[in-house]
Amino acid sequence: MKLDTRAMRHLTAEDWRVLTAVEMGSKNHEIVPTPLIEKIARLKGGASGVHKSISALAKVGLIARMKEAKYDGYRLSYGGLDYLALHTHASRKHVYSVGSRIGVGKESDIMIVADDTGTQKVLKIHRLGRISFRTVKTNRDYLRNRQSASWMYLSRLAAIKEYAFMQALREEGFPVPEPIAQSRHTIVMTLIDAPPMRQISSVPDPASLYAELIALILRLAKHGLIHGDFNEFNILIREDKTDDDENPITLTPILIDFPQMVSMDHQNAEMYFDRDVECIKRFFSRRFHFTSTTPGPFFRDAKKTVGRDGVRRLDAVVEASGFTKKMAKDLEVALREQEASSEKRGESGDESEEEEEEEDLEEEDENDGDEDDDEGPQVIGDGVLENSAGLNKLTINDGT
Ligand code: ADP
Ligand code: MG
C-alpha cells in the first residue's frame, strides 16, 4: 500500500479529533458505531460537525463505511492509521516531510522522511496481516480470535517489538540504526547511508567480512538473541575511509529488521540459529565464492555463552517493556504464517543459483524506480522548510 500524505493538509482539527475517535473506538469494536464516534469526539458543533468530518475522512479513504453491518459504522483504514502515526511524529517534531519510498517489503513500507532541520530519517511502516491466514491450520484456528488476527494490532506489535530491540541493541553498542520514535505501527530511525549486502557485487576481503558477520551472530547469541532473518537484505554494508594506504576502506555491517527476533531459549532456537548461519554461508559462497574452512558455528557452543562474562541478556528486554507473552505469541504466529505463505509463493531468498545471479542488482531498481520518487517530499509538519518553494506544505492545524 502506498502512503499518500496529500490529503493531510486538508484535514481540520475536528477531522483529526474524529479520526482519533474512530481509532479509540476500534479498540473494542470491529466496526465503530457512529453514535460512539460522536460520543468520543465530543465536538463543539455536535453531531452535525461529526458527520461532516466523517464524510471528509471517508472521502479520502481514512475510514471506511461498513455497509454490511447491522448498524451504521466505520472502521479505520491503513491510510487512517498511517495518518494518525504521522500526525504524532509531526507533532513531536520527529517528522516534517515525507519523501520517497525506498523499500517495499512483504511486511512493511520504508520511507525516507525529514525533520524540520532537513535531517533525513527512515520511517518504517509495518503492514502485517496483508495476507490472509490460510496456510497453517493451527495458525488459522489460533487466529480465529479476532483480536489476535487484526492487522492493526499485529502491525503495532511488530513496531513495538522492533523498537524495543533496536533500543536494547543500540544501548549495548550493536551496529544498528538509532531508534528515534515509535507510534502505532510505525518507527522512525536514523537513515543508514549504506546499501544492503544484496547489492554488493564484490568485496576486497570476503573472509574478514564473513568473520565479522559470524561474530555478530555469536555476539547476539551471547546476549540471548537470534536475529531470525539474518540475510543479505537485512545487513547494510557501510564503507568507511581509513588513513591506512593499504586498506583505504573498511566495511562495516549494520543490522536492521528485528520483529522476528527470538530468544536463545526459544523452543526452535537451534533451527533459527542454524538458518541464520546457513544464510550467510550460502550468500558468501554464491556471491563472493568464499567458503569458510572453519565449520560451524554451532548452536550448542553458542548456547553455552549466553549471559557469559556478565553480559546483559536482551531476550528479556522486550517482555520487560510491557510486551506480554500473549503479544509475543500473537506476533510470532502471524510472522510464521506470513513466512509460510511467502515461501509458497516462491518469494523466499531461496532461489536457485542461476536465478540469483540474473536478478542480482536489478531487483533494487524495481523498488527504487517507484513512481513516488519523482514527486519530491510531501510536507506534513507545521513549520516552513527553507527552499520549500514548490513543495506541498501541509499544515496540521489542531494546535498540537
Ligand atoms: P522488511 O521487514 O520489509 O524486510 P526492513 O527493515 O528489512 O523491512 O527494510 C527494508 C529495506 O529498506 C532494507 O533492505 C533496506 O534496504 C531499507 N532500509 C530499512 N531501514 C533502513 C535504514 N535505517 N537506513 C537505510 N535503509 C534502510
Ligand atoms: Mg528486511
Structure description:
With 400 residues, the protein is of the alpha+beta class. It has 14 helices and 13 strands. The protein has helices spanning 13-26, 34-41, 46-59, 78-91, 137-142, 146-149, 151-171, 206-222, 269-288, 299-304, 317-320, 325-344, 353-359, 362-368, and strands at residues 32-33, 63-65, 73-76, 97-104, 108-114, 120-126, 179-183, 186-190, 225-226, 235-241, 249-255, 262-263, 378-379. Helix 1 crosses helix 3. The model is unreliable at 348-374 and 383-400 (pLDDT under 50). Bound molecules: adenosine-5'-diphosphate and magnesium ion. The site of magnesium ion has 4 residues, from loops.
Order of helices and strands: HEHHEEHEEEHHHEEHEEEEHHHHHHE
- Shape from CA axes? elongated
Hetero ligands: adenosine-5'-diphosphate, magnesium ion
The CATH topology annotation of the largest domain reads as: Phosphorylase Kinase, domain 1
Number of domains: 3
**Structural class by helix and strand composition:** alpha+beta
Mean pLDDT rating: 84
Query: How many beta-strand elements?
Result: 13
The quaternary organization reads as single chain
Cofactor: Mg(2+)
Biased composition (Acidic residues): 349-376
Organism: Dichotomopilus funicola
EC number: 2.7.11.1
